[in-house]
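User: I'm preparing a small set of examples for a lab meeting where we compare how different chains pack in three dimensions. I only have the primary sequence for this one, and I'd like the structure in token form so I can line it up with the others. Please keep the answer compact; I'll paste it straight into my notes.
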Amino acid sequence: QLQLVESGGGLAQPGGSLKLSCAASGSTLDDYNLAWFRQIPGKEREGISCLSTSDGSRLYADSVKGRFTISKDNVKNTLYLQMDNLKPEDTGTYLCAAGPKYLLSFREYHYDRWGQGTQVTVSS
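Assistant: Understood. Below is the structure token output for the 124-residue chain.
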């Protein structure tokens, strides 16, 4: 059974960078579509980026396009989210998710494996 563990969150200044990692165990990430979501208290969970391991296609939320990059290391069986030019509104808990290789989307019900999340705070 696939298990996901996020790391790499922390405090960053506006304009700074962080790289989040999502280490997988129990199965290979290549068997799934993969995604990063952001959770802010009192708000709905928001899809940030997702990756099809079938054809390599990627989707990004409009709010992070040009600033965030999703990638995967097959050897380390780890998913990444490179976050550049961070803004205070990027603050939140970031969760990685994996799901069956259906249509790539930000719909939460397309993902059935979730990590616990890592906190990102962007503040001066």
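A couple of notes for your slides: The chain has no helices and eleven strands. The mean pLDDT is 96.

User: Perfect, thanks.
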